[in-house]
Design goal:
13 strands; 11 helices; EC 4.1.1.15; seven-stranded mixed beta sheet; PyrdxlP-dep_Trfase_major; PyrdxlP-dep_Trfase; alpha/beta
Length: 457
């Protein structure tokens, strides 16, 4: 009997790999059977959490069976290779034009956009466009270009801090407070100057889910321009809210209806309802994307423009986005997002009734909300203890400190995504009630050593 046939007959969990401890940091010397390798991967990832019970992440964790078939049929497509996959390229073009129209671009045919790996890359492209236009204007005026700054909330998503770090831009963080829970235009004149390349407005703050009032920020910048002559543009980081507001708050003015909004980004893999990783960025007009950021490259037999940070990347997620646009349409998206918001409001209302907590917000912007312990409620436990108790039941509900000027305040947050049904939400609420009652019944303080925030970005 040859060795290969012997391996076929060996019981699965007695085979090399399953029956031995493999090296973790070196490639194995010999091959293994396909089903053995698969079993090892399955076994190790079995230790991961249940993604649908992960209420920390904004990233989609459920798609229907037909979407999975679209995904499987397009694993091999390279989004950058527009010569080999021209129809996939055309579909990408269709998708960002759909978004330009959804976000009320004055003339979508005059807009320009692209898909990205995620909204972080999309944000960086928006920031780079700001920096390059500012540099060009300063050079034309014979002025210094060495000290660009970008103004944003202290509750900004970490990708903006990365942008400033990687591309040598000074971050100017406007602190939030109990009186000003978001960047709302208050005191904005103290942060902007002739070196300000733009202001970031967030539609769905990561920490809490609240919208920043883009129209109020634009109004404040209008007043600053009237006083100083500084014409400062806005990029809307709509990672979540840009795929919620058009469907649930259509009368809210936050998008290209505001002339000061030059660009908008979103995550297709968040409330765009697509598996990771996919982002989009759209400029209201081609004039706001400097031509020298666009490369004309020869690649695999064709000439093509590109203005992404990444090069080769999956095309499958773009096709999934197109599938979702076709599958749901406007009314389908509205129904899905409304269902998520209904669940968020149900949970927020239930948590507010428990008595131990104060809501920071109630999920009426994006279907995300946060709460904190009532002052003086207890000295025996904190939200990290509740986080850990819920995790023992499979629920990941993160606790973490708020940003600068509010770091002494710890909040806990729930992100409601498509797939968290009202029935599951009732189970979650019951778990929160049960574990809060358990903690309230403690006669001594819980230990606090080793506590740490859960991932919340």
């Amino acid at each position: 009997m040859n060795a290969s046939h012997a391996d076929d007959l060996t019981p699965k969990f007695a085979r090399t790999g399953e029956g031995t401890v493999l090296a973790r940091h070196t490639i194995p010397q010999q091959e293994s059977l396909p089903d053995t390798a698969k079993q090892i991967v399955d076994d190790e990832t079995m230790l991961d959490g249940n993604s649908r019970l992960n209420l920390a992440t904004f990233v989609g964790t459920w798609m229907d069976d037909e979407a999975k078939q679209v995904y499987e049929a397009s694993f091999d497509k390279n989004m950058i290779d527009k010569d080999e996959y021209p129809q996939t390229a055309a579909i990408e073009d269709n998708c960002w034009h759909m978004l330009a129209n959804l976000w009320n671009a004055p003339d979508a045919s005059e807009s320009i956009g692209t898909s990205t790996i995620g909204s972080s890359e999309a944000c960086m492209l928006g920031g780079l466009a700001f920096k390059r236009r500012w540099q060009q204007a300063r050079r034309a005026a014979g002025k210094d270009t060495s000290k660009p700054n970008l103004v944003m909330s202290s509750a900004v998503q970490v990708c903006w801090e990365k942008f400033c770090n990687y591309f040598d831009v000074e971050p100017r963080l406007v602190p939030i407070s109990l009186e000003h829970k978001t960047l709302d235009g208050y005191d904005l004149e103290k942060y902007v100057d002739e070196n300000t390349i733009g202001v970031v407005a967030i539609m769905g703050v990561t920490y809490t889910g609240m919208y920043e009032p883009v129209a109020e920020i634009a109004k404040a910048l209008d007043e600053i321009q009237a006083k100083t002559g500084l014409d400062i543009p806005i990029h809307v980081d709509g990672a979540s809210g840009a795929m919620i507001a058009p469907f649930l708050q259509p009368d809210l003015v936050w998008d290209f209806r505001l002339e000061r909004v030059h660009s908008i980004s979103t995550s297709g893999h968040k409330y765009g309802l697509v598996y990771p990783g996919l982002g989009w960025v759209v400029w209201r007009n081609t004039q706001w994307l400097p031509e020298d950021l666009v490369f004309q490259v020869s690649y695999l037999g064709g000439q093509m423009p590109t203005f992404a940070l990444n090069f080769s990347r999956p095309g499958a997620q773009v096709l999934l986005q197109y599938y979702m646009f076709l599958r749901l349409g406007f009314e389908g998206y509205r129904a899905v997002q409304q269902a998520s918001q209904d669940v968020a409001k149900y949970l927020a209302e239930g948590i507010a009734k428990i008595g131990a907590f104060e809501l920071w917000n109630d999920g009426s912007d994006i279907p995300v909300f946060a709460w904190y312990l009532k002052d003086g409620h207890t000295k025996n436990w904190n939200l990290y203890h509740l986080q850990d108790r819920l995790r023992m039941k499979g629920w990941l509900v993160p606790a973490y400190p708020m940003p600068d000027d509010l770091t002494d305040l710890t909040v806990q947050r729930i992100v409601v995504r498509n797939g968290l049904s009202m029935d599951l939400a009732a189970e979650l609420l019951e778990s929160i009630e049960t574990e809060t009652a358990y903690l309230d019944a403690l006669e001594a303080a819980m230990p606090v050593e080793g506590q740490h925030p859960a991932f919340h970005h």
